[in-house]
Amino acid sequence: FLERIMNYAADEKLRKQWDRLGDDKIWHKNIATFIDTMVGLHDGEMYEEGPLPKQPSFMHLKNENKDSLKKRRFSKDIIDSALKDNPVIKTALGNLDIEPHDCVSLADTLDFDNSGDVEVLELVMGLSRMRGPSRRS
After folding, report:
1. Which residue from 78, 103, 98 is spatially nearest to 31, judged by alpha carbons?
2. What is the reported pTM?
3. In the 8-state DSSP scheme, what is residue 115?
4. Is 1 helix (H, G, I), strand (E, B) or coil?
5. DSSP percent split of the chain into helix, strand, coil, nearest 5
6. pLDDT in tens, 76-90
7. How many Å apart are CA 111 and CA 109, to the nearest integer?
8. Measured at the alpha carbon of residue 103, what is the angle toward residues 137 and 40, in degrees to the nearest 5?
9. What tens digit of pLDDT does each residue of 21-75 get?
10. By three-state DSSP, how is residue 2 classified?
11. Do 118 and 109 touch, CB atoms closer than 8 A?
């Protein structure tokens, strides 16, 4: 009996997670929040501690166009620092169902070409692959 209840709870948790993974609004909002925050950090702006706003302003992305955003590169040091210290980054990754233990060497994981920097396309592609339950390879 107890085993059935535990299995049901695990199945229900997994079902809810798959629903979140299929929700494009969650993906778009949180990847935009992540990139907007990284642009601000890369440009030397600091973020205040405190609760996250219900509706993000994307104040840094407003100044970007498609071409300038494609050329954006983030240093691995800034990514690593943001993962440790920035609540907006941590919340966005959590909302994307990216496991905290998968973020330990996130900058290295996302730097596909080993250039030392992470391009926006590398960031988007890498984070999209990391979503969901951890998988062993």
Report:
1. 98
2. 0.75
3. S
4. coil
5. 65, 5, 30
6. 999 998 888 889 999
7. 6
8. 140
9. 777 898 899 999 999 999 988 887 655 555 455 566 777 888 888 899 889 999 9
10. helix
11. no
Quote the CA–CA distance of 67 and 113 in Å, as a whole number: 20
CB neighbour list of residue 114: distance below 8 Å, 6 or more residues apart: none
Q: What is the distance between the alpha carbons of residues 111 and 133, in angstroms, rounded to a whole number?
A: 22
What's the number of CA atoms in the CB half-sphere (13 Å) around residue 52?
Answer: 16
Strand, coil or helix: what is 109? helix
CA 20 to chain centre: 14
Burial class (CB in 10 A: 0-12, 13-18, 19+), 93: buried
